[in-house]
Structure formats: C-alpha cells, structure tokens
Design a protein that fits this description.
Family: Belongs to the sigma-70 factor family. ECF subfamily.
Order of helices and strands: HHHHHHHHH
Largest sheet: none
Structural class: mainly alpha
CATH topology of the largest domain: Arc Repressor Mutant, subunit A
Number of helices: 9
GO biological process, one term: DNA-templated transcription initiation
Strand content: under 5%
Keywords: DNA-binding, Sigma factor, Transcription, Transcription regulation
Distance between the termini: 69 Å
Shape: rod-shaped
GO molecular function: DNA binding; sigma factor activity
CATH superfamily of the largest domain: Winged helix-like DNA-binding domain superfamily/Winged helix DNA-binding domain
Number of domains: 2
Protein name: RNA polymerase sigma factor
C-alpha cells in the first residue's frame, strides 16, 4: 500500500509546483529567491511526507510549509551579518583568552617568589597605581628605596618569566596577524 501512496504523493506535489512558485514570488518579489524557497519547501515536504494525510489538501499543506520556511529564514537573516569580504570577522579577531589565563597564572607564581619587600613595592606602584612617593610613605622608607625595590622586582620577574623584550608580550606568532588587523586604527 505504501508503494501506491508515494507515487500519488509525488504527483500531487508536482501538480502544486506552479501555484507554490507563484505564491513564493508574491511573497518575496524576486524569482531567484522564490525558486530557492520553493526548493526548500519541496525538500521539507518530501522529508515529512509521512506526516501528510493523503486525501487532504496538499496545496494548503505545502503553502503552510512555504510560509513557515519563509518566516524562519527571515528570523535567521535578522540574526546574521553579511560579511562576504571578511572585514567584519577580521575586526572581531582577538587573542585567545586561554593564553592570558595561563600567563596570569605564571605571573602569580613568579610574584610569589619575590622577596616580600620587592613584592610589596611592585604591587603598590605597578598594580595599585601609587606614585613612588606614596608607596615610600606607605612602606615608611625613602623614595629611592622604593624605586630600587621596584626595579629589582621587575628584573626578577623578567628572569622568572623568561621575558627578554616586548616581543614576549601579547599574541603568539600564529594569532598576531589576526589581532594586529583587528586593532589597527
């Protein structure tokens, strides 16, 4: 019995195509997009033919599928951004966050290895934003002493983190071209 249903389904589907195409053109106004919509509709109807009850109105069922497909495409296109030349995507490129998290872990370990007076000085000046004078007042020592502690702390951190220059900061060689384009003004 299923053999008889499928050819009948196929015949009714083919007979509805001209009306379906006319309906799609009336909704969209462009023949190329209307043809794509009809094709999507036919594909969905064919995949769901077991949901169609033979003897009912095939044309109404197909028009409903077409209309729902059109609305789905419209909702989807509202969330999509046309970016055929890739400019928008390039502007969104960023350094992967996992590298930053790993770098921060390494920095915390290195910071913990500093002598307490150097750690205190570099945190006050480098992280908390105090001037050398303010840090000296907080620590109860001379400004030169704070400057010396901060300098020794920076040098020790560079050694512990194996930093030899500016090239050791920021994105790696693979992601640098992406982020340099994203942040070029």
């Amino acid at each position: 019995m299923e053999e008889k249903l499928q050819p009948s389904f196929k015949r009714e589907l083919l007979a509805a195509l001209p009306s379906l195409r006319a309906f799609a053109i009336s909704l969209i106004g462009r023949h190329d997009r209307a043809d794509d919509l009809v094709q999507d509709t036919i594909m969905k109807a064919w995949a769901k033919q077991d949901h169609f009850e033979m003897g009912t109105n095939m044309k109404a069922w197909l028009f409903t599928i077409l209309r729902n497909e059109l609305y789905s495409q419209m909702r989807k296109s509202g969330r999509e951004v046309q970016d055929s030349d890739g400019l928008f995507t390039e502007s969104m490129a960023m350094h992967p966050s996992q590298y930053g998290a790993l770098d921060l872990q390494d920095f915390k370990k290195a910071l913990d290895q500093l002598p307490p007076d150097q750690r205190e000085a570099i945190i006050l000046v480098g992280a908390s934003g105090f001037s050398y004078e303010e840090a000296a007042e907080i620590c109860g020592c001379a400004v030169g002493t704070i400057k010396s502690r901060v300098n020794r702390a920076r040098q020790r951190l560079q050694e512990l983190l194996q930093i030899s220059g500016e090239a050791d900061f920021g994105p790696d060689a693979t992601s640098a071209p992406l982020t340099s384009k994203a942040f070029a003004f």
